[in-house]
Amino acid sequence: MQTLLRGGRVIDPAGGFDGTADVLVAEGKVAAVGTALTPPPGAKLIDATGLVVGPGFVDLHSHVHSVAGHRLQALDGVTTALDLEAGLMPVERAYAEAAAAGRPLHFGFSASWGGARAQVLAGITPDARIASSLAVLGNPRWQRSSSPRELAAWLSLLEGELAAGALGIGVLMGYAPTTEPAEFRAVARLAAKAGAPTFTHVRELVEMDPATPVDGSTEIATAAAETGAAMHHCHVNSTSGRHVDRVLHTLEESRQAGSRVTVEAYPYGAGSTAVGAAFIDPERLRLKGLGPSSVIMVETGERIADAARLEQLRAQDPGAPCLLEFLDEDDPRDLALLRQALAFPDAVVASDAMPVFWPDGSHDSTRWPLPPGGTTHPRTAGTFAKTLRLMVRETGAWTWLDAFRRCSFLPARILDDVAPAARAKGHLAVGADADLVVLDPAAVTDTATYADPTRPSRGVRHLYVSGVPVVSDGALQTEALPGRPLRGAVV
């Protein structure tokens, strides 16, 4: 079916266009952009007057591998949701299972550094499931440094995953923070040789752990400079905390010197991970200026009372999801730090969206509205709408053109070399993929909270994935599963 979006405020961040226009969608592509376009016979006509029409958001950092999670992200304006920080392994199975189940949004995965190391160093066979991945994060057996033989073995696994279609290499360095720095440089060399980016959760900063083998943000800047690899710094807000000014300065110096370092951020003061993660250790929390009470268990809502209780939970179920409060969003100084990370030149928005869990242990639901009792991080449902509220509507720090550049155009460009199909995403011109969001600029906002994290965002009036409506007139189309894989094409 052809669709004509008439009279909207059209934003094309690639060409710098911001003006009133019509957009014709046909056969999954943008067929025409102009004024007073004549609708083809049988085309569906959508009145977009007063609405903003732009390329759908490309989320480089989403851990939702389910219909339920994708639906929440669709109502947040996302059309492509990729798990690139952690990745899944084996990547062929991850792609096959997502395609077989159907997805509302486009999907894709990186090669999992953690999964490859777990297989070689601990004999843990990855099974491409997010629940299994969370459990592995808290397992100390894979977190040590590698022998030369082991290093070669897991690098070979990563190389095989890239050949199988992975969108780069996801490196969870923060979960194995004492490993030999030479191993990270070896990953960067592999990525540079393959023409694939890395996506790194950096290890601890020197301010937070003076005993760290190398400062996390300095490490990624140095590795990018030495190898020429394209290296993406994940959630710079959460790994930097109150040291974000110094970290951003380090990264900017590296970029000015020619390093290919990119940065992402999200607008929340609490992160989410497995309670067994290395940086949830009571002593490491102390070094960050935090404590056990900064940790909240996702599924029960328990705020940890003391170090003994935290150690108990880490021992009995290291994969249990938790929240970690690293900044106080009600403190103007901390809120300014979050905004500073988002405002960093060319920083992209990425959600770090987490799976939705229900009391019965299930991690997915095809019901809509979602069943009550679901728990997750509010960033799953609200990252992009909250960012637009903070940076465009409330502060005017960004124009709408800036917003679509950071939410759509720049994220897609990070993938251009590894996935040529990405070149049709993130912009709005003839021939581009018809992955479009149509939103109400005066109403777009997040509604998800830490207490009620599955409340969908408001203000997305229409969302098209390959030209198929996933959201129409603000209502989710539950039968729509048009998502397709975005795969790497490493030669």
From TrEMBL:
InterPro entries: Amidohydro_3, Metal-dep_hydrolase_composite, Metal_Hydrolase, Metallo-dep_Hydrolases_sf. Residues 45-471 form the Amidohydrolase domain. PANTHER family: COLLAPSIN RESPONSE MEDIATOR PROTEIN (PTHR11647:SF1), HYDRANTOINASE/DIHYDROPYRIMIDINASE FAMILY MEMBER (PTHR11647). NCBIfam families: PRK09061.1. This is Amidohydrolase family protein.
